[in-house]
């Protein structure tokens, strides 16, 4: 379970996250939506202690992220950031193996290797496992980073725009896979998504943000409505029901 | 966008052999160079030649280990492979501290040069930690700014030392200058044993950090996400780098491009990113370059004091070629 | 915003006043007795003029380099220009020791040109032209050329000569030994005449071609100017770091980057900064002197750090 109390982040006079209080239940798939600069990534970064909060607190499984030792937290919470360049030449298998660091501290056991193999298979990466990261496409790199987070084998997984660089096939595959991780393995997944329709079709719950504040929280039926989306994005959209899923048309 | 570039010959060879064999070959080459340096042209005067050349080799090896390790460590924490402690002004800072002590306590102020070395190294650890952690912290994203700040700091520290030197009375200035104009030949036998001990301690410190160093390669945020206490690890690495730079600067003076060169070569020949093998490889390559260079210069060209100049020239040239060569 | 021309004029007036005050200080400060008109004519006036000319020249060379390399952090001493000029001086002094200074300077200008062209070539070959790897490559190139010079000088017992070109020092400037610097003034005016074209070239090759400019020729002319100014300065006063880096960046903050408007300010501020550093160098350890290049390393370095870190903080 993830909880935030009055979480706030300021840069000088600019407030990017403004007193966010949330309770996200365990074993659920939560999407965070909002326009560019709404504070989604900063919120995720504070929950994952990558960014210190200016005020307020965040808890993962009841542990205060600011006070818990980094390695303890790393066994409960994994995070994928928007892609960061890695200076070293590392193969995909190496990268995924780094996901086991919180457990193995550099000495991989057979169980660790099994986790790595599992994550590689899960993301269709086995044929590429021994390629260097700078030799594969952006989408393959993105999948490798996600595989690393999965290999970390944590209950909570935070993902900042996991669909970046993925084509239709891999994006749909990724969302299905995350859904399965929640349903079959009991994970808690929080993802920043820009594709409102993916958020609508796969989430248990959607958090809508605007100007650093949470505008609305609820299941897709409550959030994916013309009124809420107008408030969040400031544009007129049309919500239609396709095969039982609320789908947003906004292309023209 | 995906750049499937051809692996350079060196790294192809490295991957075919595996890291263990590459290390073994490097160690063999380094040992060969050392033996050649000790024996070639000795003409049977072993009683004189062995201790004389022995101290020289020992200091070259110490410098090789210190410079190579410091460079690889610094590149790992800064996430950038064209930075070195020397470019970032580390050795200029050490020089400034040395000068500062002469100004404050006088040239002979500490009596024993070993005590002086320890005090200076301690001060260096403190200042380097404060300054560079502040810099690395505040430009967590903008590493570029850090780089430029470091370069400017280097010039600033060097100029400040010069100003301080001018403030001294001429006698002290001469003392300072002779101790500053060190090169690979002006061995400091008085410092060798202590430097070796300090280096050993630093080596143990590095050893204990090895797994964390590998994780740091993934960048600050990923390292934190994987449970590494980034700030504390960074501080430790900076202290280690400060110690290593102190050792090499105290022994032979500033060397700018050597570290950059050997680190690059190590990354090229080693088929893996793992510090456990990259660090020894870089140190061995540095040893081969220094001892081998000195051997060739002394025995072939009969030039005794030019090693630092030649290494700087060849090192810098190689790097430019490497940088430009990445274009293709 | 608020009438930049009026603001610029205000700054220009202020700069002119400061410059005059510094020049006066430079004439007055020193060991010798000022009532002796001879000292004034033989030493102080030439020294002050040399400082003004060298400072203005190096600052202008810096701003031109920055436009041509499209990088704020480049100047002759971080682009291989200064070290190449020094190598040229060394070579010509070795090969033709009795050649007149003008010939030596021409040789230095030629090698400086070659070094700068090489720098721009390496830049073009680099895949990632990150903002700050550019000066780093320049510094490395300079280091390589410098190491070559040191090696040659070491083999030929010329290390001392090398030192005089590498360290900026005007304490030995006397009447008859600085007049070459007037050439740098001529070159600076030439740069002013080319100001618009250099500004456009600074927008990049595509923009220049779009505006009908012969890009290659303008760039070639610009680096020829930079190389000549650098060579003249090194032949008379030695290498002076940072002027070309600090001054254009400071001026750009107040007056922007349109060369026609900013060039006079850049020249004036460069002259002022160098005068200030030299007067400081004469005062700190009176009656001894600290070379102006060293003082500039401290003052310029400090100024630049403040500039850089403040801008960085503003962005974060």
Question: Could you please describe the fold and organization of this structure?
Answer:
- The complex is a heterotrimer of chains A (252), B (328) and C (316).
- With 252 residues, chain A is of the alpha/beta class.
- Chain A has helices spanning 40-47, 70-74, 92-98, 101-104, 110-122, 138-151, 168-185, 196-202, 220-223, 226-233, and strands at 2-11, 14-24, 29-34, 55-60, 63-64, 77-80, 156-160, 188-192, 205-210, 213-218, 238-242, 245-249.
- Chain A contains ten helices and twelve strands.
- In chain A, the strands form three sheets. Chain A has a six-stranded mixed β-sheet, sandwiched between helices. Chain A has a four-stranded antiparallel β-sheet with strand order 2-1-4-5. A two-stranded antiparallel ribbon of chain A has the order 11-12.
- In chain A, helix 7 (168-185) links the parallel strand 7 and strand 8.
- The N and C termini of chain A lie far apart (39 Å).
- The model of chain A has no long low-confidence stretch (mean pLDDT 89).
- Chain B has one domain (9-325): ABC transporter involved in vitamin B12 uptake, BtuC (Orthogonal Bundle), CATH 1.10.3470.10.
- Chain B contains 13 helices and no strands.
- In chain B, helix 3 crosses helix 11, helix 3 packs across helix 12 and helix 11 (257-269) crosses helix 12.
- Chain C has one domain: Orthogonal Bundle (ABC transporter involved in vitamin B12 uptake, BtuC).
- Chain C is globular, with a radius of gyration of 19 Å.
- Chain C is an all-alpha fold and 316 residues long.
- Chain C starts with a helix and ends with a helix.
- The interface between B and C is large, with 40 and 45 residues.
């Amino acid at each position: 379970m993830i909880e935030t109390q009055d979480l706030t982040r300021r840069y000088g006079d600019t407030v990017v996250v403004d007193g966010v209080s949330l309770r996200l239940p365990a074993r659920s798939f939560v999407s965070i939506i909002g326009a560019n600069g709404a504070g989604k990534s900063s919120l995720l970064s504070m929950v994952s202690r990558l960014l210190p909060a200016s005020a307020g607190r965040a808890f993962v499984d009841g542990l205060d992220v600011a006070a818990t030792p980094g390695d303890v937290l790393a066994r409960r919470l994994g995070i994928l950031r928007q892609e960061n360049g890695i200076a070293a030449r590392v193969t995909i298998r190496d990268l995924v193996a780094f996901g086991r660091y919180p457990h193995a501290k550099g000495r991989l056991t057979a169980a660790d290797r099994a986790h790595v193999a599992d994550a590689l298979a899960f993301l269709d990466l086995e044929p590429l496992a021994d390629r260097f990261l700078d030799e594969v496409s952006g989408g393959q790199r993105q999948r490798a980073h996600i595989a690393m987070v999965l290999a970390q084998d944590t209950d909570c997984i935070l993902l900042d725009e996991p669909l970046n660089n993925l084509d239709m096939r891999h994006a749909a595959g990724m969302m299905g896979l995350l859904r399965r991780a929640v349903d079959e393995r009991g994970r808690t997944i929080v993802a920043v998504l820009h594709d409102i329709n993916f958020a609508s079709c796969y989430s248990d719950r959607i958090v809508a943000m605007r100007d650093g504040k949470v505008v609305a929280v609820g299941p897709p039926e409550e959030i994916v409505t013309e009124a809420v989306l107008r408030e969040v994005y400031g544009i007129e959209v049309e919500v239609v029901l396709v095969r039982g899923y609320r789908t947003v048309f906004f292309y023209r | 966008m995906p750049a499937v570039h051809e692996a350079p010959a060196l790294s192809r060879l490295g991957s075919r052999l595996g890291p263990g064999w590459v290390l073994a070959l490097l160690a063999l080459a380094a040992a060969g160079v050392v033996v050649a340096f000790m024996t070639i042209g000795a003409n049977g005067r072993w009683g004189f030649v062995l201790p004389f050349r022995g101290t020289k080799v020992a200091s070259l090896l110490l410098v090789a280990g210190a410079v190579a390790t410091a460079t690889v460590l610094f590149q790992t924490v800064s996430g950038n492979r064209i930075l070195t402690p020397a470019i970032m002004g580390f050795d200029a800072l050490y020089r400034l501290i040395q000068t500062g002590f002469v100004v404050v306590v006088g040239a002979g102020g500490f009596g024993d040069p070993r005590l002086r070395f320890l005090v200076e190294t301690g001060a260096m650890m403190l200042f380097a930690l404060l300054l560079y952690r502040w810099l690395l912290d505040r430009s967590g994203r903008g590493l570029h700014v850090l780089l430029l700040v470091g370069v400017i700091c280097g010039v600033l520290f060097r100029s400040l030392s010069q100003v301080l030197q001018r403030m001294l009375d001429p006698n002290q200035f001469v003392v300072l200058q002779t101790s500053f104009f060190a090169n690979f030949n002006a061995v400091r036998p008085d410092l060798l044993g202590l430097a070796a001990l300090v280096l050993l301690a630093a080596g143990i410190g590095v050893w204990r950090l090895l797994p964390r160093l590998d994780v740091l390669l993934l960048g600050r945020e990923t390292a934190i996400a994987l449970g590494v206490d980034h700030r504390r690890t960074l501080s430790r690495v900076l202290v280690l780098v400060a110690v290593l730079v102190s050792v090499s600067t105290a022994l032979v003076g500033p060397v700018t491009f050597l570290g950059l060169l050997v680190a690059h070569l190590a990354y090229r020949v080693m088929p893996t990113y793992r510090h456990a093998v990259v660090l020894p490889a870089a140190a061995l390559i540095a040893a081969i370059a220094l001892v081998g260079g000195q051997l060739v210069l002394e025995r072939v060209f009969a030039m005794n004091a030019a090693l630092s100049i030649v290494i700087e020239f060849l090192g810098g040239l190689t790097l430019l070629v490497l940088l430009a060569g990445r274009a293709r | 915003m608020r009438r930049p021309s009026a603001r610029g004029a205000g700054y220009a007036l202020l700069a002119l006043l400061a410059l005059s005050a510094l020049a006066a200080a430079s004439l007055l400060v020193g060991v010798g007795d000022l009532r002796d008109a001879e000292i004034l004519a033989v030493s102080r006036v030439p020294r002050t003029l040399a400082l003004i000319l060298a400072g203005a020249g190096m600052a202008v060379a810096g701003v031109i380099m920055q436009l041509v390399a499209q990088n704020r952090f480049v100047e002759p001493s971080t682009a291989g220009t200064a070290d190449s000029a020094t190598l040229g001086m060394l070579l010509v002094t070795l090969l033709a020791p009795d050649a007149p200074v003008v010939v030596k300077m021409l040789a230095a200008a030629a090698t400086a040109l070659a070094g700068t062209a090489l720098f721009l070539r390496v830049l073009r070959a680099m895949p990632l032209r990150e903002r700050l790897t550019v000066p780093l490559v320049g510094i490395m190139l300079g280091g390589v050329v410098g190491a070559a010079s040191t090696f040659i000088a070491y083999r030929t017992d010329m290390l001392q000569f090398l030192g005089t070109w590498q360290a900026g020092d005007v304490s030995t400037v006397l009447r008859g030994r600085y007049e070459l610097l007037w050439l740098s003034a001529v070159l600076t005016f030439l740069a002013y005449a080319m100001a618009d074209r250099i500004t456009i070239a600074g927008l990049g090759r595509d923009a220049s071609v779009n505006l009908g400019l012969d890009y290659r020729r303008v760039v070639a002319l610009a680096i020829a100017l930079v190389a000549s100014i650098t060579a003249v300065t090194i032949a008379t006063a030695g290498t002076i770091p940072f002027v070309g880096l600090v001054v254009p960046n400071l001026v750009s903050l107040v007056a922007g980057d349109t060369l026609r408007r900013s060039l006079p300010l850049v020249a004036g501020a460069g002259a002022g900064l160098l005068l200030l550093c030299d007067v400081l160098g004469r005062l700190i350890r009176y009656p001894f002197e600290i070379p102006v290049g060293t003082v500039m390393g401290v003052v310029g370095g400090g100024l630049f750090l403040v500039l850089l870190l403040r801008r960085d903080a503003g962005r974060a």
